[in-house]
């Protein structure tokens, strides 16, 4: 009998399920979630880890046994680590020191050289993580991935995420709700849906404090950058690969709404998403409830919530942040409604 198995872990990246939201109020619409948390590295970024490394191999920027460098502690780091380990490359990641310990342990266990740098300095400072990665890449003759400028990032979504959603929706959908970290997802999906000619409305979900929602609405880059707790999305600049011209509608979502929405998703639908999932879902629900006609809407569960168990899924942390109110009796069971 032939085996119905995968050749290796890299083959299990993508082809994630699309699940309908049935226990949350979606107004007149039907809302579907692409479960990118089910990728082997736990996030949508496995797709670009694979596409950016394979593009560098094709372009001759990466030789067998070569060194790859990137500036991130986030999911891109994990995606790259997964692919680099399978393909025998050395991976160096420059990571801001505010990142969660678990992420760093996870990366080191995957064989990554993690270089910690200051998280309190901005672009142009020599210890800024992006600038430091570029310098180390030059010193070591390594391939600097730079997801913010790498065309293989949006291409991963144009060539895989988009076509998968389109097939799963039976070529019939009205809107796609995305966040922007590097802008790879929204740019690649907009390109793919543009090619279908189906007029899929691209909607931005942005954390309050990020400049991007305002940019979509006014075309201006604000100097007025706030801070937000949600991880992986929201920016203080417009990455060069990020094309927001097809995006007409944007929602600016406060942290509290995002995190409570993600908790609701777990409690009601049994899906453990990360914090950015909360922002995307909150925006998608607002969009759905505002519609006057039934529409078919898709958004993403970008990563798994297991990295955030001690934060957004921890009632004590939520209370400390002011995202949950403390009941008079102080009984935590009262909080889990
Ligand atoms: N959600 C999470 C959890 C992420 O890590 C990222 C990437 N930083 C995104 C969403 C946004 O994806 P993109 O970089 O494609 O804009």
TrEMBL record:
Keyword rRNA-binding recorded: no
Cofactor dependency: pyridoxal 5'-phosphate
UniProt-recorded name of the protein: Pyridoxal-phosphate dependent enzyme
Domain of life from the UniProt record: Bacteria
Keyword annotations: CBS domain, Pyridoxal phosphate
Lineage: Bacteria, Pseudomonadati, Pseudomonadota, Alphaproteobacteria, Rhodospirillales
Transmembrane segments: none
Organism annotation: Aquibaculum arenosum
């Amino acid at each position: 009998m032939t085996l119905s198995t995968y050749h290796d872990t890299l083959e299990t990246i993508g082809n994630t399920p699309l699940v309908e939201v049935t226990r949350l109020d979606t107004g007149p619409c039907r809302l579907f979630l692409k479960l990118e948390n089910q990728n082997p590295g736990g996030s949508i970024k496995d797709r670009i880890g694979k596409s950016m490394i394979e593009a560098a191999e094709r372009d001759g920027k990466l030789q067998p046994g070569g060194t790859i460098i990137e500036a991130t502690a986030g999911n891109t780091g994990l995606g790259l680590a997964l692919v680099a380990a399978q393909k025998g490359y050395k991976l160096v990641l420059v990571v801001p020191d505010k990142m969660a310990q678990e992420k760093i342990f996870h990366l080191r266990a995957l064989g990554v050289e993690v270089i910690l740098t200051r998280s309190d300095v901005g672009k142009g400072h020599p210890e800024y993580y992006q600038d430091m990665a570029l310098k180390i890449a030059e010193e070591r003759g390594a391939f600097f991935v730079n997801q913010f400028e790498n065309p293989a990032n949006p291409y991963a979504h144009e060539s895989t995420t988009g076509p998968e959603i389109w097939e799963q929706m039976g070529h019939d959908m009205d809107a796609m709700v995305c966040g922007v970290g590097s802008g790879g997802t929204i740019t690649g999906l907009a390109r793919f849906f543009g090619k279908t000619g189906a007029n899929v409305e691209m909607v931005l979900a942005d954390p309050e404090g990020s400049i991007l929602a305002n940019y979509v609405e006014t075309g201006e880059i604000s100097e007025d950058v706030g801070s937000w707790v949600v991880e992986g999305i929201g920016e203080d600049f417009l990455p060069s690969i990020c094309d927001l011209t097809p995006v007409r509608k944007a929602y600016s979502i406060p942290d509290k709404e995002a995190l409570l929405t993600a908790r609701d998703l777990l409690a009601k639908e049994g899906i453990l998403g990360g914090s950015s999932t909360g922002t995307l879902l909150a925006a998608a629900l607002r969009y759905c409830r505002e519609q006057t006609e039934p529409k078919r809407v898709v958004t993403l569960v970008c990563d798994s919530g297991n990295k955030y168990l001690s934060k957004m899924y921890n009632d004590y942390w939520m209370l400390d942040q002011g995202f949950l109110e403390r009941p008079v009796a102080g009984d935590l069971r009262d909080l889990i409604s």
